[in-house]
């Protein structure tokens, strides 16, 4: 997957019809009949004869158009680059901001992973860039097979202060060891917050890098795992070996 380009109005029209998230903010759609301008992924479906394309928001406003209330084209949207790699436990999708990895998700098919990405980051411009992310993708695939490694990857996971504290504690758990939610609660200095810890584990956006699979119930049961209990069992078995 490589970043798409939109060299002419036909390409821009096709991006509009596809609700292409990579085109979000790359250009703007003016709709003469309604007097509004939109981003390419807007849910509106104007007729081609009523549409003009503008390179910037300023150009759209200069043409007398106002911002669409549905897609809010005046928002400053961040750009996330994303790519998918095959691992020994299925596919891994990563998304990266300028600051670091925002998402590492595991799954079985690209469309489901992409759908999850689009749901999580509804306002971001999402650019496919497997080639540009090759080193990060390779590091994640290697980590699946070699969990004892600690790849030096910049991280940019967004969360509350408590979530970030939990995720940092998870990254300190060595491979081959498991802990309980109560153990993590004690580790972050909030021994009564084990339910909040469980929620933070469930919200972890960085599979295998932040190893929430190493947290089990106090009775040793596996409990849940966002990316499938079978993957959790497989990861723990590899680490135990």
Automatic annotation (TrEMBL):
Molecular function GO labels: DNA binding; methylated-DNA-[protein]-cysteine S-methyltransferase activity; zinc ion binding
E.C. code: 2.1.1.63
Residue span, Ada DNA repair metal-binding domain: 11-74
Gene3D superfamilies linked: DNA Methylphosphotriester Repair Domain (3.40.10.10), Methylated DNA-protein cysteine methyltransferase domain (3.30.160.70), Winged helix-like DNA-binding domain superfamily/Winged helix DNA-binding domain (1.10.10.10)
One family name in Pfam for this protein: Ada_Zn_binding
GO BP terms: DNA repair; methylation; regulation of DNA-templated transcription
Swiss-Prot/TrEMBL catalytic activity: a 4-O-methyl-thymidine in DNA + L-cysteinyl-[protein] = a thymidine in DNA + S-methyl-L-cysteinyl-[protein]; a 6-O-methyl-2'-deoxyguanosine in DNA + L-cysteinyl-[protein] = S-methyl-L-cysteinyl-[protein] + a 2'-deoxyguanosine in DNA
InterPro entries reported for this sequence: Ada-like_dom_sf (IPR035451), Ada_DNA_repair_Zn-bd (IPR004026), MethylDNA_cys_MeTrfase_DNA-bd (IPR014048), MethylDNA_cys_MeTrfase_DNAb (IPR036217), MGMT_N_sf (IPR036631), WH-like_DNA-bd_sf (IPR036388)
All copies of domain Methylated-DNA-[protein]-cysteine S-methyltransferase DNA binding, residue ranges: 162-240
Family classification: Belongs to the MGMT family.
Protein name as catalogued: methylated-DNA--[protein]-cysteine S-methyltransferase
């Amino acid at each position: 997957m490589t970043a798409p380009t939109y060299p002419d109005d036909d390409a821009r029209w096709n991006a509009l019809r596809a609700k292409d998230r990579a085109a979000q903010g790359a250009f703007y759609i003016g709709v003469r009949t309604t007097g509004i301008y939109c981003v390419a992924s807007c849910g509106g479906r104007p007729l081609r004869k009523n549409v003009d394309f503008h390179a910037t928001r300023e150009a759209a406003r200069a043409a007398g158009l106002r911002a669409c209330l549905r897609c809010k084209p005046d928002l400053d949207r961040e750009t996330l680059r994303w790519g998918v790699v095959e691992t020994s436990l299925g596919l891994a999708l990563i998304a990266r901001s300028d600051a670091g990895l925002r998402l590492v998700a595991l799954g079985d098919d690209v469309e489901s992973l992409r759908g999850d990405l689009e749901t999580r980051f509804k306002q971001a411009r999402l650019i496919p860039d497997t080639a540009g992310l090759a080193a990060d993708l390779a590091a994640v695939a290697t980590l699946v097979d070699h969990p004892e490694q600690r790849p030096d990857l910049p991280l940019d996971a967004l969360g509350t202060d408590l979530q970030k504290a939990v995720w940092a504690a998870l990254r300190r758990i060595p491979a081959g060891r498991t802990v309980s939610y109560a153990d993590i609660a004690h580790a972050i200095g909030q021994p009564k917050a084990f339910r909040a810890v469980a929620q933070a584990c469930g919200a972890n956006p960085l599979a295998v890098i932040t190893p929430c699979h190493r947290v089990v119930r106090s009775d040793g049961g596996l409990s849940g795992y966002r990316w499938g209990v079978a993957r959790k069992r497989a990861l723990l078995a590899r680490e135990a070996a």
